[in-house]
Amino acid sequence: MFLIARKLVLNDGTISAPSGSAELAAGDQVLMHDSTGVPQTFVQSTGSRGDVVDKGTIAAAQIALQAADGNVYALAGHATALRATGVAKRDGHVWLVANNGTAHVHGRIDATNVDGTGGTVDTTGAALRLNHADIHAANWNLTAPVFDVGRLTTEAFLRQLNQGTSVTLNASQGDIVMEHALRWTGDASLTLNAMHSITVGPRAALANTGKANLTLRADSAGQDNGGSVTNLGVIDWSKSTGLVSIYRDSNGRYVAGQTLSNPAWVAPLYSGVKSQVSSYVLVNSLADLENISKDLNGCAP
Question: What is the pTM of this model?
Fold first, then answer.
């Protein structure tokens, strides 16, 4: 089921496509193709400033809301606003895409696969507004040019992590800065991928009680851009049995700061991992490979 318009696509009722896709797209030029793993519509950027608004409910195997030059709104309602349940050939997946606008997530979104396991929610925008986001899925992937994670966004991430949804931030053009404490319980993991650098600010803390993994990756596109990881706050895995993995460019730096590990941690069997907290230097070129001999421990500042 496809709803396509140039300026505004609005759902204020109920859309049901239990065995297929429900896609809402706004723009001057919308391309369509057959697919089970990505949205079947692609909105080309032409400056049309069209918006997609969901104020009702949508239930389908897969759901996509896209506005290349405008905004996407997934608003709060009386029940689950978006529910993707998957079918045999389509995993439960929700896409909210506003590449040149703002993606607003202010309601409940469910994504599950046909076998009952958690699905995926992808949220992409030039800016993201996540107040009252309520994501029930295995994975929530967020992409924006940069992330300066303030209090309200931190609270949104905390809610999802505590209820078992792993969160991945992808800064597609620059840095990720964590400004506030993010302490959660359970096994949901946090991944920060920055095109350039990652900073845990002086008032921030990343901490887990459970089995969660934490991954911090600078220079995520392998561009040899000096991407660094700097911890000015606290990384506390002293009550977790998960892993902390830190990656930086060979031309960048790793500042460990206050990083706490669990003295009772035991390496997973056959993993080859020797430490709960491990830092790695990315080898992105032949020159990087040749320079390994200058930094054999892989974590020199």
Answer: 0.91
